[in-house]
Amino acid sequence: MNFRRKTNLEDPEINFIPLIDVLLVIIIFLVVSTTFSKFSELKINLPVAEANQNNKQEGFITIEVTKEGRYSVNEIPVESTDLNTLVSKIKVASEGKTDIPIIINADALATHQAVVNVMEASRLAGLNKITFSTKLK
């Protein structure tokens, strides 16, 4: 009988190669499965209110938006909130010119959709110069 203990001269080792393989597979899975989405944004340069300007100058179209979502073009109320009606009123006010700026004067409680409707109506009317009026605090 051999009652002698075996002497192990080699130190135990940990093999890191399978661990590295598994981590690389996990990283590749995460990179491939990640969805990249691009959000569309509107670039808006907000005006700084430094002084009151007279909105009744010639060559401007002012569109007011009330908190109820009603519109008025050059202080003439628009009877309908329909987009096509607003487009026709803007075309009449612009008299066929396409370089006239539009000043949007919206109530603080007006919905974003009402303001976006004015922007869309001006685009459909062929007018692209849009600015927002502000008031001093």
TrEMBL record:
Membrane spanning residue stretches: 16-36
Topology relative to the membrane: Single-pass membrane protein; Single-pass type II membrane protein
Keywords attached to this entry: Cell membrane, Membrane, Protein transport, Transmembrane, Transmembrane helix, Transport
Gene3D superfamilies: 3.30.420.270
A Pfam family annotated for this UniProt entry: ExbD
GO cellular component, as recorded: plasma membrane
MF terms in GO: transmembrane transporter activity
GO BP terms: protein transport
Source species, domain of life: Bacteria
Entries under InterPro entries matching the protein: ExbD
Annotated compartments: Cell membrane
Signal peptide as annotated in the record: none
Record family assignment: Belongs to the ExbD/TolR family.
Name of the protein this chain belongs to: Biopolymer transport protein ExbD/TolR
Organism the protein comes from: Methylophilales bacterium HTCC2181
Upper lineage: Bacteria, Pseudomonadati, Pseudomonadota, Betaproteobacteria, Nitrosomonadales
